[in-house]
Amino acid sequence: MKKSVYLFSMLFFLLAVATGCSDWGEEPELNTLELESANVSFDAYGGTGTIVVKSTAGVTAACGEPWVSISSVSGNTVAITVDPNSEMLSRSTAVTVMSGRKKIQVPVTQSGVMIDFDRSAITLPVEGCDTLLPIKSPVPVMATSSATWLVANISGTTLTLHAGANPLFSTIRAATLTFTAGSFTIPVAVTQQKNTLSYNAYIGTWAMTHTASTPTTAAKISKTNIKVATAGDGTTLRVTLQAGSNASTTFTFNMAYNPATGEVGLKYQYLFTSSDGDVFFAPSSYPWNFYPQANAPLAGLNGVMTGGTTDLPVITFSDNGEGYSVRGMFLLEMRGSSAYIYNAWGDNATTYYNIIMSKTGG
Fold first, then answer.
1. Which of 52, 91, 141, 360, by CA, is between 20 and 30 Å from 212?
2. What is the pLDDT of residue 17?
3. Which segments of the chain have a pLDDT < 50?
4. Do 121-192 and 199-361 share a fold?
């Protein structure tokens, strides 16, 4: 009986040695599994990456997220593919690499959607153009414009902006472009330079339409041809105007040109000396308010392009905001300490209210 118990104990010991420390019914785990390297951090565009492990046996891999797929497993190298991210938030998951009963989890991260566009603001030329700019996103980008004058189209990685010439003379016009990629949006400010006239654009023949008025006669509309020539300094124009209907009665005055705005201005200025006194080209607020005032030399009219084209523009004159309110200009004759409207060329010949100049060519 003792001999049988001894034999049974020996068999149990040998069985335990043969199976090692494994559980009953399991094979012993003899292989190793360690992470050697991983290239699995992605931007919003996605792409491919690899996981390399150390293992003494074959490996397999899996991931539970649909945006990560196992491209291939070759030896100890696992290749993965990550889809583009169309969300603003970043995301992460893990790829499980297995060898036998051993496994390791390798974190995979991806940043949120982005739009690669290197402009925080866009300035377009006054004459209009088709502007091509590079733009890139991991998902399709849409561009919408807040203004009808600006049209935006995206084809592939190229943004095309179309704008015609700016018709708003002396005014910058603005719009907002909104780019949308997935749930991500960015606004970009777009401005178009104002339409201004060059110094040389004023040189030539103009028709000056104006209201002729004095305190004693009813207002009437007059049209006078004038010539504008250069004064040679780039900031002053010489204007020769025919007074009344007599072609021999003319006078010349200066018109200031502003290079920054392309606008012109008329101010109080000396013209000539008559037989009775000095004659000035003077601003006025009303037909009967022609006597000199302390601020009269500052007051005047600003001429701003309000119509036509840059070749044949229309200039409208209005109060320049300096001194008292100005409606027009007239010839003022100073006879000692007294002032009179200079009408030697005929009634209303030198009184000009509500002035508009339209270029006729030349």
1. 360
2. 42
3. 1-24
4. no
CA distances from 357 to 90, 152, 209 (A): 62, 37, 6
Pick the CATH number of 199-361 from 2.120.10, 2.40.128, 3.20.20, 3.30.70: 2.40.128
Quickly list H helices, the chain: 2-19
> Which residues face 51 on adjacent strands?
38, 78
3-state SS class at 199: helix
How is 35-69 classified by DSSP, letter by letter?
Answer: EEEE--EE-TT-EEEEEEEEESS--EEE-S-TTEE
Tens of pLDDT, residues 68-127: 999 999 999 999 999 999 888 899 999 999 998 899 999 999 999 888 998 889 999 888
Architecture of the 31-110 domain: Sandwich (2.60)
pLDDT of residue 347: 67
* Radius of gyration from C-alpha coordinates of the chain: 43
Which tokens sit at 190?
A: 């777009």
Supply the pTM of this predicted model: 0.56
Give CA angle at 269 (267, 273), nearest 5°. 155
What pLDDT does residue 147 have? 95
Q: What is the CATH number of domain 121-192?
A: 2.60.40.10
Reading the block at residue 57, the tokens are 């046996």
Looking at residue 137, what DSSP letter applies? -
Cα 199 from Cα 235, distance rounded (Å): 8
